[in-house]
Amino acid sequence: MKNFELKPEKLKNTCNPDIFSFNTTEELEPLKEVINQERALSAINFSLGIKNSGFNLFVSGLPGSGRTSIVRKIVKEKAIKEKTPDDWCYVHNFTTPDSPSVIRFPAGKGALFVNDMEDFINTVRKTIPKAFESEEYEKKRAEVIKKFQEEKENLLRDVEELARKRGFLIQVTPTGVATIPLFDGKPLKPEDLQKISPEEQKRIQEEGHKLLEEINKILIKVKRIDKKIMESLQELDVEVAVFSIGHLLQDIKEKYKDIPEVLDYLENVKEDIISHLDKFKVPKAEDEDFYKRYKINLIVDNSNTKGAPVIFETNPTYFNLFGGIEYEAKMGVMVTNFNLIKAGAIHKANGGYLIINAMDLLSTPFSWDALKRTLKNGESRIENLGEQYRLVLTKTIKPEPIPINLKVILIGTPYLYYLLYHYDEDFKKLFKVRADFDTSMDRTPDNMKAYASFISSFVRRENLRHLTKGAVSEIIDYGSRLVEDQKKITTRFQYISDIISEAHYWAGQDNSTYIDRKHVKKAIEEKEFRSNLIEKRIQELIKRGVILIDTEGKKVGQINGISIIQLGDYEFGKPSRITANIHMGNKGVINIEREVKLSGRIHNKGVLILSGFLGERYAKDKPLSLSATLTFEQLYEEVEGDSASSAELYALLSAIGNIPLKQNLAVTGSVNQKGEIQPVGGVNRKIEGFFDTCKVKGLTGEQGVIIPYENIEDLMLKDEVIEAVKEGKFHIYAVKTIDEGMELLTDLSMDEINERVNKSLHELALGLKRFGEKEKGEDKNEKS
After folding, report:
1. Where are the beta strands (DSSP E) in 17-175?
2. Which domains does the chain have, with CATH numbers?
3. Taken in order 19, 24, 29, 34, is the CA torsion positive or negative?
4. How far apart are CA 559 and CA 578, in angstroms?
5. What are the tens digits of pLDDT across the range 180-193?
6. What is the maximum alpha-carbon separation in the chain?
């Protein structure tokens, strides 16, 4: 019989410390470049370099692969060399106060303008009252009044003279001008008027009316003079105000002469101050809110930014990303103004780069849709979330939109990328570049040396103990175990960093200057110990016989399969008893798990393949007439995957041919319709899971595991298992076909096995035929 057993040197690819020329990582230069992510780096650089719209970047990779830290590093290095973008300010719109205007400033000038305007208004508030309190102003004001007062007094004298000549006295009342008749130079009393003849009374009244008409014409001229006085005084006030603030405004205009929007704004400020001179001439405490209209709301300040901004938004809520409008309570009412407009990350990153975790973005209501809308329109409108859903309208403002030009970088998993690509039609238009981070790299001498340099840079950055070359070798072996590949090492450096940090702790407990191999091993063991409570409980139940697993003897239709239990960041192999029963019938292979809805689609496919194998091999000269049931005993959770399909086929062949199978062996591997064994995942954990079971039940030297031949290069087993193999206490076999596995499990040749199975299937077919003929005969007798 062919020897399928693997030698100990095949069970692990151990890194030889002698390949390193250093003694500790202290001697190494820290790693400066990214290891083995050429494809991802190329995509990142392409996206950052191309300026066309829609070429935003989605960084795809698993957590711990360094995708976030690498992207931030590359983006910052590129951004520092680029032009610093503009500042953005919101100002009061004097024409339409509900629509604040936005002004763009070169980087750093926005903050200067804020200070300049604050100084200007403070100066104006002091200068204008002083100007109107000056003697010169009072003198000019008096001259204006005097100039028109003489003309006014002359007209009033004319009125009095005209009335006297007509025999009347003029009296000014709250309702207007009244004429009183004179008699002998004295005002005529009402009772005296009654003594005069009616004709004389009529004459007096008519004369009074005529006099009033002429007086009113003169009084109109008087009112015109009053109006001229007011207009002249206003012109004087404007002249004084303009003179007071003119040179101040001119200084600011000169400073910002290259920004037309600022010049227009300053002109509007000047007109508004003139229109509200009363607020400045005699300042009052209640006018403080009025002066806020001249403040500048600097929402984006790049005065301290070097190069283009790089914003990493860790909490991408709608408000954090797109800003909003705050409110404040005034007299029991919520009010707002342009000073309460707040910027979001999209505005701070404008002209640069915005980095967001894709899952965080999609988990926040409205943020994803708003981001797409902003990128499509090239502008950001600051408005409060749900503004359009309000049932009761309240007074608010609508700020002028800000043009947006930036590169958005989303970081997420491959699965999330595929979901967005297929289900969001805008995603593929806006994020045309994907940078895919690999989770492993080739285990070459150069890459292993680069690994050591990464370790050196990490311990320096985190201020940890340096590692000996033996410890580095152990880390590399651990990296290969994580990816289950003797020729690969993981690039999910977060897991490597965590083990180094834990090894640093154990080295400290040992008072060691450096982290050695034993400290790395201790860290790995302790990490496992903290997570393997469930695994040890299962092993305890197996030892006590609560979970039925045989590790000795032979049984017909029974075999040990191995499944993987995933518990967060920890997984382990759990042996399961798989049984098969056959009986006369034509229902084929029945998957009990499927019947009770405890079987996943892939497992269902694996079971259906078994029927294809049986039909191809044994049913070419006869019908496949049997009913068989397959199940995982004592399994109460869903079964998924096809890694147990070879074990199920072994159990099925055993049951059909009445051939006992060795219970000291466990089996993993999927099978195709041609009987070829296919590789599976988690092979290391599966082997170690059955080894632990045999250990608690007692190692006999006969126990072992049968794995697919194609999984040999995936083996990175624990030292304990390898030692047991070396000592002959445990065995690992690799097979390519079902035939090879059956020979191992039965110690029979495949010819003998096929003969027994064929004979049994033949008998089942004949038995089913005889039973059918017998039933037909009984039916005829009943009819007759």
Report:
1. 57-60, 87-91, 101-105, 168-173
2. 8-36+438-531 (1.10.8.60), 130-275 (no CATH), 536-768 (3.30.230.10)
3. positive
4. 5
5. 666 666 666 666 66
6. 162
